[in-house]
Amino acid sequence: MKYIALLYGEPDAGPAPGTPEFAEMLGEFQSATTAMAEAGVLVDSGPLQPPQTATTVRVRDGQTQLSDGPFAEIKEQLGGYYILACEDLDTALRYAAMIPSAKYGSVEVRPVMVMGSH
Amino acid sequence: MVARLAGDLSLAEDCAQEACAAAVEQWPREGLPANPGGWVVAVARHRALDHLRREGARAGKEREAVREWAAAGPDDCAVAGDDQLALLFACCHPALDPASRVTLTLRVVCGLPTASIARLLLLPEPAVAQRIVRAKRKIRDAGIRLRVPDPGERPARLASVLRAIYLAFTEGHSPHGTGTVVRDDLCEEALRLARKLHRLVPGEPEVTGLLALILLTGARSAARADQDGAPVLLADQDRSRWDRDRLAEGRSLAETALAQRCPGPYQLQAAIAACHADAATAADTDWRQIAALYSELLRFDPSPVIEANRAVAVAYAEGPAAGLAILDTLAASSRLARWSQLHIARGALLARCGRHEDAVAAYRHALALEPAGPVRRHITGQIAALCAAPAPTQEI
């Protein structure tokens, strides 16, 4: 099964850039990603640019409407993702717990829907 | 394993039920098979195959898995216990919400019909049915596998299983929103589950501890309410109505668990219940030991409710003023201010200190929080007794 791990956190959660703790966190990201890759479960992963860079697209009455940024002001922001191919939820949860965001914010694990061949 | 290989909880459950129904029908007629458990598994396996054949549109991979399983030898049947454990772990997976875990466990592991669960949990049947459907859907769609967790994750996952059984028991032992004091049916179901789990993992002290706790606490249920259904405090209970067999079994299990020197919250609660069981009369209770056990319990679960229980034990061991001091600190925290039991306990200790007016005020405070009928009757009884008693000339 494919799972997506969505990394959420408040903008100022976790260590500040430039501190030794920040470097340590980056190391933890690196070792989590390496562990996933070596186990053959990592499909894709990446950090996201901050929400200020986001553009929201809506199509209403056939008209494409664009707006700046995320729709609502929310405390926890989506900061990155991992796509994992695991045999079951428990395996995916084990890898998700290795992601430092689980310590500073939260990691939401969702199964990717399998579209039936109709 | 029926579930694991058919990959579909509903299907596996139906097949297992059909197999059991077939057993009820065939065994009296044709005699007990050499390996009854294996027989049920084998029949369930055939039923699963039939179902899957009928649902020809299923993914090829899944059909292959079931074919592989159906072709496997009868040796697999030896793991029937593990399969039940796998089912229990899946039903109590921490990814499911706690209320759903209890419901699903009663349905799938105990095999109770939805209507009975609705009666047990005092919920409308459609709500229970919906909860079960949602939980099963999550198990299937999120990829929760029916398996016994690896030894490394087992303690944490076992906690969730124990909690589901404990929740079912406490709900039966002190039911919300009903006029009754004890719901025996739900307590018995929780006891059956705890026994089943203990048979499956006899070496885990917390599993043994939970079974002991349920036996020791449940043994008192006949004495917990009077003829009118009003609650009877532990001190006032007719101890001859306690179930001696259950007390003895619970005490022996608690000792076995604690001897493993790996204490946990269920073992400690069982030890507290055993202290009460050991006392021939309320006056013989070893309150010092109970207060010490509550302190130990606080290390695992630093909740204000446990602190309040410790206060009551301290009041008996060291005098009401010492217990009252702990309760007053608790009452000052906003979290517990709306818990009627706290004010009832304060009322009792204030009365024992001779502070009748303050005691009445505490009881009235508890009444204002609208506790259940029998509890309300108990409070009004206490207030009436306090108002009738002559005011003490000095504090005792």
What class, by secondary structure content of chain A? alpha+beta
Count of discrete alpha- or pi-helical segments spanning 4 or more residues of chain A:
3
Order of helices and strands of chain B: HHHHHHHHHHHHHHHHHHH
Give the overall average pLDDT of chain A: 91
* Major sheet characteristics of chain A: 4 strands, antiparallel
Helix and strand topology:
The complex is a heterodimer of chains A (118) and B (396).
Chain A: E1 2-9, H1 20-39, E2 42-47, E3 55-60, E4 63-68, E5 77-85, H2 89-96, H3 101-104, E6 106-111
Antiparallel strand pairs in A: 1-5, 1-6, 2-5, 3-4
Chain B: H1 2-6, H2 9-30, H3 36-54, H4 60-71, H5 80-91, H6 98-109, H7 114-121, H8 125-141, H9 154-173, H10 184-200, H11 205-218, H12 244-258, H13 265-278, H14 287-300, H15 304-318, H16 320-332, H17 340-352, H18 356-368, H19 373-388
What does this structure look like?
- The complex is a heterodimer of chains A (118) and B (396).
- Chain A is of the alpha+beta class and 118 residues long.
- Chain A has a single domain (2-111), classed as Dimeric alpha+beta barrel (Alpha-Beta Plaits).
- Helix content of chain A is 27%, strand content 35%.
- Chain A has helices at 20-39, 89-96, 101-104, and strands spanning 2-9, 42-47, 55-60, 63-68, 77-85, 106-111.
- In chain A, the strands form 2 sheets. A 4-stranded antiparallel sheet of chain A has the order 2-5-1-6. In chain A, strands 3-4 form a two-stranded antiparallel sheet.
- Chain A is flat.
- The model of chain A has no long low-confidence stretch (mean pLDDT 91).
- Chain B is mainly alpha-helical.
- Among the domains of chain B are: 1-72, no CATH class; 81-200, no CATH class; 202-285, no CATH class.
- Chain B contains 19 helices and no strands.
- In chain B, helix 5 packs antiparallel against helix 6 and helix 6 packs across helix 8.
- The termini of chain B are far apart.
